[in-house]
Amino acid sequence: MRKIVFMLAALLSMSVAIPTFAEMTATQKDECVLVSRNCKDAVDDIQTQIKRINKEIEKGTAVYTAEELKKLQQKLAEVKEILDGLNKH
């Protein structure tokens, strides 16, 4: 039962986040991922957060500074740590 509720919550949060993805171009910084700005009701599940952060890291120095990439990598490590913690319970 808990898994079903979690899946429904994840689907709902993904449906809210999809319009946010459509507004960004490939060379634009995702400020919501980088510094939690311009999020427009974006509530992602953990797996979606990991995908978004990885996508931004892949843009590399063409879009982000070295310091910003380091922040993104730290955020990715934090989100993965949360996921690992949830999987243990």
Give the N-to-C terminal Cα separation: 16 Å
Structural class: mainly alpha
Number of domains: 1
The rounded Rg comes to: 14 Å
What is the percentage of strand-forming residues?
A: under 5%
Signal peptide: 1-22
Keywords: Signal
In short:
Keywords: Signal. The protein has 89 residues and is mostly helical.
Structural account:
The radius of gyration is 14 Å and the shape is elongated. It has helices at 2-22, 31-35, 46-59, 66-88. It is an all-alpha fold and 89 residues long. It has one domain. It is built from four helices and no strands. Helix 3 runs antiparallel to helix 4 (66-88). Residues 16-23 have low confidence and may be disordered. Residues 1-22 form the signal peptide. Keywords: Signal.
How would you summarize the topology of this molecule?
Layout: H1 2-22, H2 31-35, H3 46-59, H4 66-88
Keywords: Signal
Signal peptide: 1-22
